[in-house]
Amino acid sequence: VVMDGDRPAAPLTIGRLDAAGIEVRHDVVYGEMPGVDAQRRSLDLYTPAQTGSEERIPIVLYLHGGGWSAGDKEQSFLQPLAFVPEGFVYASANYRLRPDATVAQMAQSAADAAGWLVRNAAEFGGDPHRLFLIGHSAGAHLVSLLGTNWTFLERAGVDLPSVRGVVSLDTAVYDLPKLLAETELDFYRMVFGTGEDVEEVSPWHHVRYDALHPPFLIFYSEGRPAAHTQTIPFAQRLRDAGHAATVVEAIGRDHGGLNAYLGTQNDASTARIVEFLRRHADASTYAESALESSLVPSPLEYSMLRPGPAFLPDGADAALPILLFLHGGNGDRRWLASNRYLFERAWELGLLPPVVVATPSAASLGYYMDYHDGSEMWTTLLAGEFPRVVGARHGGDPERVAIAGYSMGGVGALRVSFKNPEAFVAAAGMAAGIEPALAFDELPAWYEGWKGARLGDRFGTPVDAEFWAENNPASIAAVNPERLRASGLAILVECGGEDQFHNHIGNEFLHRVLTEQRIPHEYRLVHGEAHVPIAPERMLATFEFLGRALDGPSEAKRAARTRYDALLAPMQAMGPPESTP
User: Fold this and answer.
1) Which of 286, 391, 553, 561 is positioned for an S-S bond with 396, CB 3.0–4.6 A?
2) Confidence label for 211 from pLDDT (cuts 50, 70 and 90)
3) What is the b/e burial string over 461-490, where b = at least 16 CB atoms within 10 angstroms of the residue's CB?
4) Minimal CA–CA distance to 499: which of 439, 541, 436?
5) pLDDT tens digits, 339-398
């Protein structure tokens, strides 16, 4: 570190790294590109000295500042001394610069560095599912862009949920069009231009309530004017969209000092960053596994999520309830990774108690059924063998199981639980593809176009009408309501009011059948919401319902009964449900 005013001057020598138990690999090229200096696409990699442990540890990627036209990975200064001893792999990367690259090309270069780290994580003990981005100045703008505009990371082969957090150190560029309109400095116009494409590299313009964004920790140097026009409004925009964002004023630090002091003893910003990284690195454990079963094509791949230590009760060794969350059509087990942050958010807010979450990779448009020809038995698997395996392998309690899902997974959750209500504490169907009839020949004419995709050969060819009714949630409820009532199963039926697949019609029909049969349940028709994308608030509300049920079936049943009694009189006044609502 070069002495600059009151900056720290102690250099990061090999001796200091050895003393701290840190190994370093300099100038690792993360991707050659014709005509581009390899040094501009290289990184320095700092890892803990070999300990013999096979545990994968989180990865931190740092991007330097320099006005998008200068700077070097050596500007990480003493940061490796702060992060590696805390249990992180640390990488400081160069990226392409002006005038040889546009800002979008710089962002792609930085994303490529992240892609190299994820792909090669096994070589240096890193966890590809726990990546953090830290940047200073221009680098802070770039990591903020990567954390909001996922296009760059997707091109680099990085699964979006792998980014567990973003730390932005004192950039003035979040809402780029606003900055260009208000600034008197030609510098920003020279860097970014003034065309319509500036929004591509404007973090502000990629914040969406229906998108996945990692938690942000955002710093600004003491007294910086841009904090009030850029930094604080950007953090508020993230929060307004349902994402986590914290803003910190670095008291006693100017723009350069904020970065130069990182890694030094007693630096408040360093302590705050380490705490942020630690909290989000340990918020949950995600794993992918497989099981052999005679009931479905094997090996059956599935994903698992467990809450981290901060969310576990004092008796952390006790088995946790199990939540089976079923993905939608054409999805797979990776749905759980994509929505990992929402579960962590629900645990943090106390909406959902600590649970083991498991998502199996189901057949495309298989609807989690026991097939008519017996070739695949998904309902049987999910009601018995699968939760038992999850419990034995991952510390779950197979006697306390809830099931939920979205779209195809929503109807699957309701079907499986209605056929096996004693096996589950609660069932939540979100935007479920419910057929709006009690008999196959009563399906409305407009449904004709869906029969091939939704029914196929799973109900027989031609469709076995009796078998169809045995697997239709509304028909199951109408034929044997006593079993559902006696089981105490807590039921949620939820759908957007403008569902593109018209699923709200089937959900309304199911709601009316359940009401007519006096089966307690909660029904939510979310006005203005479509089938996709799904708002995070809808997921969190569903987690709150499941949390009430898992905290105690009797409590959930009483809550559902209260809502049911309040709605019963006006519902009865509507008369019995028709084949179409």
Assistant:
1) 391
2) confident
3) eebeeebbbebbbbbbbbeebebbbebbbb
4) 436
5) 888 899 899 999 999 999 999 999 888 899 999 999 999 999 999 999 999 999 999 999
Helix (H, G, I), strand (E, B) or coil at 24: strand
3-class SS at 313?
coil
Q: What is the pTM of this model?
A: 0.78
The residue ranges of DSSP E strands in 418-563, in sequence order, are 426-430, 490-496, 522-526
Band of pLDDT at residue 222, cut at 50, 70 and 90: very high
| Cis, peptide link before residue 462, omega less than 30° from 0 | yes
String of DSSP letters for 225-244: THIIIIIHHHHHHHHHTT--
Query: Edge to edge, what strands does the sheet with 57-63 contain?
Result: 22-29, 42-48, 89-93, 57-63, 126-136, 163-169, 216-221, 245-250
Sign of CA dihedral 475, 478, 482, 487: positive
User: What phi and psi, each to the nearest 5 degrees, are found at residue 258?
Assistant: -55, -40
Query: Which residues, at least 6 apart from 340, have a Cβ–Cβ distance to it below 8 Å?
Result: 161, 284, 286, 305
Tell me how far apart the alpha carbons of residues 544 and 347 are, in angstroms, rounded to a whole number: 10
Backbone angles phi, psi at 427, to 5 degrees: -140, 135
- Across the strands, what pairs with 163? 131
Q: Is the pLDDT of residue 217 over 50?
A: yes
The SS3 assignment for 301 reads strand
**Residue 565, Cβ density class (10 Å: 0-12 exposed, 13-18 middle, ≥19 buried):** exposed
Average pLDDT, integer, range 108-123: 98
Instruction: Round to whole Å and give the CA distance between 280 and 362.
Output: 29
Dihedrals φ, ψ of 295, to 5°?
A: -85, -30
Angle made by CA atoms 520, 348, 144, in degrees to the nearest 5: 125
Tokens of 560: 């559902």
Please tell me the distance from the alpha carbon of residue 77 to that of residue 8, in angstroms, as a whole number: 10
Weakest mean pLDDT among 57-71, 110-124, 511-525, 526-540: 526-540
Distance between start and end Cα atoms, the chain: 72
User: 412 pLDDT exceeds 50?
Assistant: yes
Ordered structural domains, the chain, with CATH: 14-281 (3.40.50.1820), 284-573 (3.40.50.1820)
CA distance 415 to 429: 9
Return the exposure string of 192-212: e unless at least 16 CB atoms fall within 10 Å of the residue's CB, then b. Answer: beeeeebebbbbbbbbeeebb
* Chain-centre distance for alpha carbon 154: 15
Tokens of 154: 């997707």
Residues 146-205 have pLDDT tens digits of 999 999 999 999 988 899 999 999 999 999 999 999 998 899 999 999 887 899 999 999
Sequence letter at residue 330:
N
pLDDT digit string, tens, across residues 297-337: 999 999 999 999 889 987 557 899 999 999 999 899 989 98
240 contacts 189 by C-beta, under 8 angstroms: no
| Bridge partner list, 43 | 28, 93
Amino acid at 86: E
